Amino acid sequence: MATRNEHPNLLNSFATASPRYVRGWAIVAVLFWLALLTGDWFVRLVEFRWQDKWLPLPVATGQPARTAESFVVPAETGGGLTKMVPVPRVAARYAEFHAEKIAYRDERGYFNEASPSSGYYPILMLGDSFLVSQETQTVAQALSNVSGHPVYNHGSAAAGPFLEMRRYLAADHLDPKPAIVVWDLAARELGAGLFQRQPIASWFRQTSHNKEIGAPAKPSIQWNNLMPDRVRRDWPNTSILAFFGRQLWGQIKLLAFQEWPWDVVGRDDPVFGPMLFYRENLRVLPLLTPGENAQAIVGVVQRIADEFRSRGQTLTVLLIPEKEQIHLRALSREDQQGLAGGDQLLAEIEMGLQAQGIPVVNLMPVFRNATEQRQRLYWRDDTHWNDAGIRLAAEEIWRVIEPLLKTSEKMDGR
Amino acid sequence: MLFNSYEFLFALLPIVLVGYYLLLPKVWRHAWLVLASFIFYGWWDYRFCSLLLLTITIDYVAGGRIAAATNPKVRKRWLRFSIISDLSILGFFKYYDLGAATINQITGWLGAESSLVPLLHLVLPVGISFYTFQAMSYSIDIYRGHARPARSFIDFACYVSLFPQLVAGPIVRYHEIDEQLRKRSHTWAKAGAGIVLFVLGLAKKVLIADAVALIAEWTFSHAAPGLAGAWSGLLAYTLQIYFDFSGYSDMAVGLGLLLGFQFPQNFHSPYKAISITDFWRRWHISLSSWLRDYLYIPLGGNRKGSVRTYINLFLTMLLGGLWHGANWTFVLWGAYHGLWLALERWNGKRGIGWRLPQPLQILMTFVIVMMGWVLFRAPTLDVAATMFRGLAGLNGWGDVYPMVGSSLLNWGIGLIGVALVFFARNTWEISWKPRAGLLVALAMLFLLCVGVFLVNTSSPFLYFQF
């Protein structure tokens, strides 16, 4: 049934050419490949610092890490999302002016001014990039201004909802402990799987057990981040070749086909004009459905709230809607349908937490109303909130935690 | 791990080559390749490695015993042990659930209320069909006196697990590579030709197959594809499967050459075939020749009269179809080709359009093959039936894959694919000289391929780098 050639003709072509020439040819080809891969690995390790994903993370030990500082963040035009638009001419349409601002870093690297004279922060905010983002002030600063109380900002970007909580509990450096802990949960993080995979409750117990027996937390290599599924995702995401490839393809798609590249999409809001959206949010948010999802999240948060209660602290959950959910009218009909369940999910979580006696601030209805009143709460060119959004969030948080704080002060006799 | 993946091209392959050529003594080379192959294989799921090791061990022991035994009965007993063990492992992991589901369905028709046989939902070990056939060929070749037993367990493990051809062939039979395992040359000519073949294979897979795959996926996921959509989608799948599979084979052959091995040809412009008989001389040659030598001829081949020849051809293709996957669609696909082969054998090994001009014979064969691909691609018989209805125009004219924006690229690539299939020389026929222009072209092609497969990798966390 079959006939075969013994060798590819190419082999004969190469075998009959000058051996020196063939050797040089093959060596140049291999060197080209080696240069590509060496360059890519160099950038991965030096610039993208992929190794930070699996080498032991610096663990807060309770000792100050650096001196507190304030610094000027220079003015710039364009936010995080415009940097993902590969054609400057197109990006310029969406870019906003971000004025120069002063930022603070405390001894631990968090966005706080020097400690208050009393050394007591009655309010602690734990969370992700929404706590770091600022136009003229962070939400913690805004809350401090609104409430008149010192607020400790324990947030960091790209951290998700759990990392800062774990870091705070590992260091436990605020003494006396803040009475109110505001924990920010951005809508895109509200997947039951994410919450249930975090062994937070057992981790609480382990940490307190370690403290009791005096065992130091030993940093160890994060082997799970070296498993094939993680590596398969991480390597292309920390590759300079991939970065340039995406940039180039993004330019081609935008210029030749008028299509937005993968990571970002530009739309015109009928009221607010041009806005950029993060496509990953458009993909993820429709997957976060109400019902069982909300119940599972409430279950996990309840355990965490119980643990804080046992420490004498009140956990307050801050539910933050994503920009895509607030500017629904700017999106395509398909995306609007996909995101339609978001309100219900947040509402169910809010009701579920309230039923368990856990204070909760759901910003969705407040932000919706404000946006209806033609108040823009998010940057055009970033996924985060602007000063208006930050101020409104701070006021809402204070509305919920003010009575809690008063109760706590009465009990403490402060 | 896939050849067209970052982890292979930018991590495993360079480590393997540096270890193979620069760091390790020659006597350790095969052990190094075995280690690399198990990492390559275990990258999908480390549990698969135990199964691979089991198959290697069984056939190594059986082959050794067959060679050592002088008593024909003992030799036959060990051969049976090897074949039954291999087929049992293959059968259990690949076909158990199909068999159980089929039995349950039949008993359900007969009135049973609950499932008679439990479904195990086994995860199919990648490439098990390929390496099982390779391992079996060892025992059979030794039994037939076509090959000597392997020098060592490591040599045999290297033969079965060798990563270039482990998961998708070509199916290298032991007697074809026995001599190379004992002694082979490593020349710059092999390295150069290997590089060219690898890059061309990568381009076939990444630039063409993956691009037309979008058209095919769109069509086969359509509830009721119309006439235009069904035909364009089927043509896209016909191109996809050729460029995907032959591209992978080219990469395997290229990688083999980089390590000094010469693997057999697996594709020889199959869509230029003038009959189905001719098609099977050109498509997946290493499988069709394996089936011929180890199944069709032992069944009696053409030695027992015309009717038995037709039956043998049909049975061989039926089992060949089942080898491709645990689904009745594959069995039907095999039966379809078996019937065509039997018909053409009756017609004197000529296609049904043998009196027509050759271009029309090629076109006719191409359409027959395309019809077969419907069964091959459809996940269920229902989907296949829907596609056939679309091809017959029973769903109306219908939609086609979008012809706007960047989707136009996929159509354009599809047209290039058609031109390459019918009018270009295949990768074994080209005889380019090692010139600077070729080097620059290959470098650009490689860069383009890497860029394309990296661009298509989702980057859900890219934003948070800023």
Give the overall average pLDDT of chain A.
Answer: 86
Lateral strand order in the biggest sheet of chain A: 6-5-7-10-11
User: Looking at the chains present, what oligomeric state does this protein adopt?
Assistant: heterodimer
How many individual domains of chain A?
Answer: 2
What share of residues are in beta strands of chain B? under 5%
Please give the number of β-strands of chain B: 0
Number of structurally distinct domains of chain B: 2
Look up the CATH topology of the largest domain in chain A. Answer: Rossmann fold
Sheet having the most strands of chain B? none
The structural class of chain A is alpha/beta
User: Radius of gyration of chain B over alpha carbons?
Assistant: 23 Å
Structural class of chain B: mainly alpha
Structural features, described:
The complex is a heterodimer of chains A (414) and B (466). Chain A is an alpha/beta fold. Chain A folds into 2 domains: 69-207 and 275-412, Rossmann fold; 228-269, no CATH class. Chain A is built from 17 helices and 11 strands. Chain A has helices at residues 9-16, 19-46, 88-94, 129-132, 139-147, 163-171, 192-197, 200-213, 228-237, 240-257, 279-284, 292-310, 323-326, 333-339, 342-355, 363-372, 387-412, and strands spanning 69-73, 76-77, 97-98, 101-105, 123-127, 151-155, 180-186, 264-269, 273-278, 314-320, 360-362. In chain A, a hairpin with a 3-residue loop joins strand 8 (264-269) and strand 9 (273-278). The longest helix of chain A has 28 residues, at 19-46. Chain B is mainly α and 466 residues long. Chain B has 2 domains: 6-183, no CATH class; 196-423, no CATH class. The two termini of chain B are 30 Å apart. Mean pLDDT of chain B is 91; it is low at 458-466.
List the helices and strands and how they pair.
The complex is a heterodimer of chains A (414) and B (466).
Chain A: H1 9-16, H2 19-46, E1 69-73, E2 76-77, H3 88-94, E3 97-98, E4 101-105, E5 123-127, H4 129-132, H5 139-147, E6 151-155, H6 163-171, E7 180-186, H7 192-197, H8 200-213, H9 228-237, H10 240-257, E8 264-269, E9 273-278, H11 279-284, H12 292-310, E10 314-320, H13 323-326, H14 333-339, H15 342-355, E11 360-362, H16 363-372, H17 387-412
Parallel strand pairs in A: 5-6, 5-7, 7-10, 10-11
Antiparallel strand pairs in A: 1-4, 2-3, 8-9
Chain B: H1 6-23, H2 29-42, H3 48-68, H4 72-109, H5 128-144, H6 153-161, H7 174-182, H8 188-220, H9 227-258, H10 276-282, H11 285-296, H12 306-324, H13 328-346, H14 358-377, H15 381-391, H16 407-423, H17 436-455
Helix pairs in contact in B: 1-2, 2-6, 3-4, 3-5, 3-6, 4-5, 8-9, 8-16, 8-17, 9-14, 9-15, 11-12, 12-13, 13-14, 14-15
